[in-house]
Amino acid sequence: MSERALVLGGGGAAGNAWVIGVIAGLFEAGLDVTEADLIIGTSAGSTAAVQITSATPTQLLAEILSAVPPQRTGPIRAAGGPVPIGPAANYMEIMSAIIGAAEDAADMRRRMGAAALETDAASHRSAQTQWRATIAARLPSQLWPQRRMLIPAVDAHTGEPVVFDRHSGVDLVDAVAASTSNGFGVPPYSIGDRRYINGGYRRNENADLAAGYARVLVLSPFGGRSLHPLDWGTHLAAQADELRAGGSRVETIFPDSNSQSVLGGSMEVMDLSRRRPSAQAGYTQGGALAEQLTEFWR
Q1: What pTM did the predictor assign?
Q2: Is 81's pLDDT higher than 50?
Q3: Which of 88, 96, 209, 238 could form a disulfide with 84 if both were Cys (CB 3.0 to 4.6 A apart)?
Q4: Nearest to 250 by CA among 233, 238, 232, 234
Q5: pLDDT surpasses 80 at 185
Q6: Strand pairing class (38-41; 2-8)
Q7: How far apart are CA 110 and CA 116, in angstroms?
Q8: Taking residues 137-159, what's their average pLDDT?
Q9: Rounded CA gap, 188 and 196, in Å?
Q10: Which range has the top average pLDDT, 93-97, 115-119, 215-219?
């Protein structure tokens, strides 16, 4: 059995900052989880996964804390611009309706991909160019790390999950851009002749991809919550049960009450103005957790 896996779940701009804060808090308290043998990053977690393999947690935290807070003039999406009107503005309503109509997780992914392709704007090419540039600017390195890294996404045409790694023949920036596309505010992302939507549609944190690793540490900005019915088995708790049944030890880090208060809800985490307080709260939480996680990780 391989050794240590680090799983970073999605959670928008604020969730990414919280993850970086937690990892920096652990790091400065003497526990470096960035040395994991496998890193799995989904959606905003895929951005964090790349960031921690190409810069120190201290550097990443400092960048967040020193950034000029954006002026809040209206709803904000992860790319930094206003949330578009129309389908993208009703993203949560669309997603809830699709989940409610779906028979199971596979049916939900197919429906989600079809809806994203159907509502895609005619300006897809320019939107894709802009989104790729946005993602590239967030990554300290645009090269796949030598250690194992997995970045999940979903094929919008078929609803089938895909998992990108350095052997996939896909640029790292493209893999992250695909995993972070929710399909509505950020259109399905093209790689070759295929288009992809968010890796969180596969399973929320995709921790099950760490099967075979002795110790699995999961950071979940949404606290393991899911909009999916429990019987679909996509919740983090189900993933953790599967890992433990396979012999893995699993530890999870969820936002504490202070972190949760600044992260906000499912759409509020997209607000760039929440990044600094979320990183600060995560840093404090990580520092407090370092001692109790040391035996598990080392």
Answers
A1: 0.92
A2: no
A3: 88
A4: 238
A5: no
A6: parallel
A7: 10
A8: 96
A9: 5
A10: 215-219
Q: How many CB atoms lie within 10 A of CB 93?
A: 10
Q: How far apart, in whole angstroms, are the C-alpha atoms of residue 282 and residue 264?
A: 13
Q: What backbone torsions phi and psi does residue 105 show, to the nearest 5 degrees?
A: -65, -40
| Cα–Cα distance, 150 to 99 (Å, whole number) | 26
CB-based burial of residue 213 (10 Å sphere; 0-12 exposed, 13-18 middle, 19+ buried)? buried
CA distance linking residue 167 with residue 155, whole number of Å? 18
- Contact yes or no for 186/135 (Cβ under 8 A): no
Question: Mean of the pLDDT values across residues 175-199?
Answer: 92
How big is the chain, counted in residues? 298
Taking 90 as the threshold, does the pLDDT of residue 179 lie above it? yes
